[in-house]
Amino acid sequence: MDDSPEILEEKKNKKEKKRKSKQSSSGAGWSRREFLKISGVSAAVPLAGSLVASASVLAVEMADDTAVQGPGKAPVTLTINGKSYSAQLEPRVTLLDALRDQFDKTGAKRVCDRGTCGACTVLMDGKAVYSCSILAIDAQGKAITTVESLSEGGKLHPIQQAFIDNDAQQCGFCTPGFVMATKGFLDQHPNPTLEQIKNGMGGNFCRCGTYAGMRAAIMQAAKATKGA
Amino acid sequence: MRPFEYASPKSKEQVSALLAARWGETEVLAGGTDLLSLMKDEVTAPSRLVNIKGIQDLHGVSNSAASLRIGALATLAELSNNAEVKRQYPDLALALGDAASPQIRNMATLGGNLCQRPRCWYFRNGHGLLAKAKDGKSLVLAGDNRYHAILGNQGPAYFVSPSTIAPVLIAYGAKVRLLGPAGARELPLEKFFVIPQSEEEREHDLKPNEIVTDILIPPASHTHAGHYEVRQKEAFDWPYATAAVALVMSGQNVQSARVVLGHVAPVPWLSEEAAQAITGKTITPETADRVGLAAVEKAKSLGRNTQKIQMARVAVKRAILKAGGVA
Amino acid sequence: MADNQPDYNWPAPEKRSLIGKRVSRVDGPDKVSGRAKYTYDVHRPGMLFGKVVRSPYAHAKVVSVDTSAAEKIPGVKAVHVVQGPGSEIHWAGDDVVVIAAVDEPTAADGARAVKVEYEPLPHFVNDFDQPQNVADDNGPLSLNDLVGMFRNQVPDQQVISKINEHGISFKVDDDLLKQLHENKINEGIITALQKAPVKEAVKTASPYKKEAEQLRGEPDAAFKEAEVVSEGIYGCPVITHCCLESHGSIAEWTDDDHLFVHISTQNVSGVANEYAAGLKVPTGNVHVHQDHIGGGFGSKFGADRWGIYTAQVSKKAGGKPVRVMLERDAELTLAGCRPSIWAKVKVGAKKDGTLLAWQSESWGTGGPGGGGAPPMPYVVNIPNQRKQHIAVLTNIGPARAWRAPNHPQGCLVTMSAIEDLAAKLGMDPLDLMIKNIELTKPATDTYHRAETYRDELMIAADLIEWKKNWHPRGQGSGPVTRGLGLSIHTWGGRGHGSNCALTIQPDGSVNMKMGTQDLGVGTRTAILIVAADTLGLPLNAVTLDIGDNQYPASGGSGGSTTIGGVSSATRRAAVDALAQLFEKAAPALKAQPGELEAASGTIRVKSAPSRSISWKEACSKLGTQPIQVTGKNPGPGDLISSGVGGAMMADVSVDTETGVVKMNKMVCVQDCGLVINLKTAESQCYGAMIMGIASTLYEEKVMDPTTGRMLNPNMDFYRLAGIGDVGDLVVHMMTGKGYDERGPIGLGEPPTVSPAAAISNAVANAIGVRVPFLPITPDQVLAALNPQGGRNATV
Questions:
Q1: Which residues are paired to B75 by β-bridges?
Q2: Of the candidates C437, C557, C409, C454, which has an alpha carbon nearest to the alpha carbon of residue C496?
Q3: Is C36's CB within 8 Å of A171's CB?
Q4: Residue range A10-17: mean pLDDT, rounded
Q5: Chain B: residue nearest A63 by CA?
Q6: Is some CB atom of chain C closer than 8 A to the CB atom of A176?
Q7: Residues A129, A121: contact at Cβ < 8 Å?
Q8: Cβ–Cβ below 8 Å for B49 and A127
């Protein structure tokens, strides 16, 4: 990203030429990227051409069937707890930020934002993942399950009840992430040992120190969910 | 994160064309567990991200007489539970199941694990792979190098190779297949890792417009493998040192050996000295300890990481004892 | 008791329906379901997102700031320069410019477009090396020194003696006096400041500030008398709070001079004062709200610079709501440093273990303010002492209070030194502690402290099977050895000033309002337990509103002061309300109001419980007027106390080949007066042990000498304990006679004090040598076992 504006400009010109020749020969019409450029959406990305080498400077050939989106906002549709949600988002928006800032699903928390602490844990196609480390645009077509879904209709899931019964929470900021990690864990280990909990629940951190209650809660939830 | 363009090719042949010929302009998105952090910290700021997860060829695991082929996009979780991996390479399955955290294993791919960037805190804080101050002096040597290299550390690189899986794969004799504009090529996995000599280079023998497509592991039915990680926490903690060994036995004696140390050098460290020290020997706590000693014979402290030499030695000893079924 | 004063005393054990029982926290369902809204979750209509430009230098002058490019970016709505040209930066990551934009990516683009030119100045981030060439006097105290002492909770007497000793370099004018009074600074300090000679500041390049030597008894003679003297060096580095919900707020102007803030704070009722001072609006114009807080641990009392500038940038954006929550790296870099301690200690005793003399040379940093000495020797008041402390001024970052400020540091040094002495004496440290237990008696003993410690130590010893499992130092065999260690601790924890409003409606519904906050310790639940128990109602018959400064004011949650404050205020309100209800209900029961009691959802005659009416019916006698009372602390009746003790023991295994320490078990025995909720009280102790395990084994704010920046401002390398790292944990609360009658005493601090000392002692017992410094990482253990390597070159 050290290119001076002049170099960038030069590359851009080369690229423009290539694209023109390609379009005239293929006649394939507008790619999504071209459309965005023309519709002016990409203008919402302010720094292109100054501080950041905009994608358009890259002298590459584009295969016709390669979907290219951004850097401006693109339509993103997510399936969250069985319902469909859409928004215009830049590709750089993470699943976590989309859930929290666009769709008011604030159960998943932003804590480390680097895939370490587990507070943002959701299920994607049934598996526990860090939603901070997935792009929203990349989560399309997947079934996203957030903590909000576990108690829809007001009845708490056995995991949630176990967390309450064993006081496996203090400030509670890590709790939704732990609940979802527990869900992902118990789905795969319905009869966990304490050894399995050490590794299988190792992707989440609590700062207040609720692991004693949590171990008991996970064992209680395992019993309660057996066969469910 | 800086803005970027997002491309999702459907075939592996399309990828090279979407990637720039210079590092940093584009990046490949697979599991994303490391890449997104690097982008948030602006350690890398690509203007295009090429998401390869839609390429079916890069998924899956297939077995043949020559090797087990693992698609670069196979996740660590998927592989740790794969029946063939468990049957043929049980030690690899264990290492995969113990890597990072469940959430990471569910997303992270094997290709991505091999291509993840070093965790060196100078690198992650934006001082570059070689971590030089403005005056050209090494920040690592002048600073806190408790986690840094004890082998291959004559400079200019002092970081350690971060993968806990790569040493195990290398011990098993794995190869990696790459695809770029000039076509496909294949390397022994140990050759895939290189020590960069300048900021323009990376720590992999990978061109900016190449991708890892497959990992190939030769059959290992006569191999006894074991690995050991010296790390403080039960789970999800970067180790101080790891060792992976694969032994081919002839009766009670070791006929041939591959001993690979992790987290001790800028590359996974295939130790010839250690291999020699065990070849022809019976595995006992004493011989294992001598192998450990041989493995760190050339190790050198950078100041704060002296104790890693001892840890590496113990890791090798314990890995050998595990492989030999002694511990 | 006066005839007209109701009986506020805590109910007798047999009368308690909820107090002291195990009650699940009332906000549990909200927290487990993701419904609980934290400040970070608040999304106000039209909200803008803030992003901050931060200094890459640990010490620098801002030369110029150019925000023009940022202002031109579409979507950037406001730009505010926090520290303009001429400002001096004292730590890396300090705030320079804030951008407010329509979304987070745009705000980040705006921040990136700001050009700031700095003049780098020399920085100093090495608090570890023993200070050399230290001047005896650093001249008069500056205002910064004074504020630094307040922040570090240096005892008032110590502050006064420093003012008297050094003089001051600033004028005590009306503005300052006003601020001192507003911040409730001790009157003795204010008087000392007014009397202090104003001297010219001494310019010094030295980062070291020597405190006056402290003497007690005759240490020289006592060391001569001592038959055994043990010497050692001990310490722990700066660590950081790492609240999972970072610091931050959402600020909006509802009109020109009315501010509405959602802020993550431990001080809902008090924080508006800081906004008012910083923004020049009346305090009453600042509305503060917070439903839930994701951790504070002592680091979230103020509005902070970022709280003020969030309001300022909101104003520039036409009053629109602006959210600035610190990102993780900023949270770890600048939102909380617990001061370090490093100490060379000598302890002398008779052969029978009688402790005679203590000598310590210590140093440590609380950032640019230096910081004060922790209490040493801790709890065990060795009769003869000589102590010298040097404050190290660094660019590591500003200190903030951390649970039990200064106690864990003093405890670690003291208990380690005593355990080393026990090893040298060939004594079981438990026996040594018991032998000297009378030394733990405080100057003013409000209850039998020494006996409590003895009882607690005996119970802990049973729970960890001390006599069976303890062995003399370093007698393990094989690569993995096991060891046991112990420590004791104390804290005050008297309830803070607190007000509440309680309303009983004619329909029987009951509501309470209080401007307090629930840090996760179960404050909501405790208030409801006291209210419902007093009113004879089930827990869910009372509703509670907290977290808003429009409710009756309650103190900040720090220093374990909340439980005593809120529960005694609640008790008084509920008793008063009940007295009014009895007046109205008495005719229906054909009894005198004084003959009535509330129990099991009824109002009934004490002497004839079958003569009763339901709560609802009793309330219907109110007609149309609800009962509205306020409760206060302090207030009538003697409901709370101060001063608790606790004992901890740790059982560890150490792999002497790799240096890895594993927790096998840890035991906490703790008193806290009257337990309001046994379940959450125990959770406090579990949490304190776990947090203590992390700070003992993993946590360190690692600073780079060349750049002056924190190397691990992330949760990858700022390491916390995971679920598999803590071993078995056992909590025993001291309750019943001798404890209950003291009333509730805070519990947030005391159990956080001992873990480091207990674990460090257990490790020393296991491996036969002291690992001198925290965190006890594998490399530190190996370095202790093998003195040829590691980080012990400089001291």
A1: B109
A2: C557
A3: no
A4: 45
A5: B14
A6: yes
A7: yes
A8: no
Which tokens sit at C765?
A: 């017992």
The low-confidence residues of chain C, meaning pLDDT below 50, are: 1-2, 789-795
Helix (H, G, I), strand (E, B) or coil at A84: strand
Chain C contact set for A164 (CB, 8 A): 24-25, 28-29, 32
- Residues C170, C171, C174, CA angle at the centre, nearest 5°? 140
**Distance between CA C575 and CA C413 in Å, rounded?**
46
Please name the residues in contact with A7: beta carbons below 8 A apart, sequence gap of 6 or more.
none
At residue C788, the pLDDT reads 63
Q: C290 vs chain A: nearest CA distance in angstroms?
A: 13
Q: Tell me how close the Cα of B222 comes to any Cα of chain C, in angstroms.
A: 30
What residues 2-61 of chain A have any CB closer than 8 A to a CB of chain B? 33, 45, 47-48, 51-58, 60-61
- The residues with which C213 forms a beta bridge, in sequence order, are none
d(CA B310, CA B290): 12
Q: What single-letter DSSP state applies at residue C198?
A: B
What local confidence, expressed as pLDDT, does residue A15 receive? 46
Query: CA-based Rg of chain B, rounded to a whole angstrom?
Result: 19
pLDDT above 60 (res A37): no
- Cα-flanking dihedrals φ and ψ of residue A162, to 5°? -65, -35
Chain segment A165-222, per-residue pLDDT in tens: 999 999 999 999 999 999 999 999 999 999 999 999 999 999 999 999 999 999 999 9
Q: Which pLDDT belongs to residue B267?
A: 98
Cβ-Cβ contacts under 8 Å, A182 against chain B: none
Residue B48 and residue B188 in contact, taking contact as beta carbons nearer than 8 Å: no
Distance from C-alpha of C151 to C-alpha of C405, rounded to nearest angstrom: 10
B64 by DSSP, 3-state: which? coil
Query: Which value, to the nearest 10 degrees, does the dihedral of the CA atoms of residues C423, C427, C430, C436 take?
Result: -100
Which amino acid appears at position C473 of this protein? R
Half-sphere exposure of C579 (CA within 13 A, CB side): 13
What Å distances lie between residue C556 and C294, C560, C641, CA to CA?
16, 10, 18
Residue C424, helix vs strand vs coil = helix
Q: What tokens does B242 get? A: 């790891």
Closest CA to B282 of B325, B219, B222: B325
How many angstroms separate the Cα of A195 from the Cα of each of A190, C664, C689?
14, 14, 21
Which residues make Cβ contacts (< 8 Å) with residue C280, sequence separation at least 6?
none
The nearest alpha carbon in chain B to A185 belongs to B102
Return the half-sphere exposure (C-beta side, CA atoms, 13 A cut-off) of residue B10: 5
- Residue A134 contacts residue A122 (beta carbons within 8 Å): no
CB contact under 8 A, A107 and C34: yes
Can you tell me whether residue B326 is helix, strand or coil?
Answer: coil
Residue B252: count of CB within 10 angstroms of its CB: 9
> In angstroms, rounded to a whole number, what is the distance separating the alpha carbons of residues C180 and C160?
14
Confidence (pLDDT) at C738: 93
Distance CA B114, CA B314 (A): 25
CA distance C215 to C308: 44
Binary contact (B233, C711; C-beta < 8 A): no
- Neighbours, chain A (3 or more CB pairs < 8 A): B, C
Burial of B200 (0-12, 13-18, 19+ CB in 10 A): exposed
How many separate helices (H) and strands (E) can be counted in chain B?
A: 14, 12
- pLDDT on residue C152: 57
Q: What residues contact residue C434 under an 8 Å CB cut-off, 6+ apart?
A: C454, C457
Per residue, what are the HEC states of C548-591?
ECCCCEECCCCCCCHHHHHHHHHHHHHHHHHHHHHHHHHHHHCC
- pLDDT at position A65 is 60
Confidence at residue C99, expressed as pLDDT on a 0 to 100 scale: 98
Give C324's contacts (C-beta < 8 A, 6+ positions apart). Answer: C50, C52, C98, C248, C249, C306, C309, C310, C313
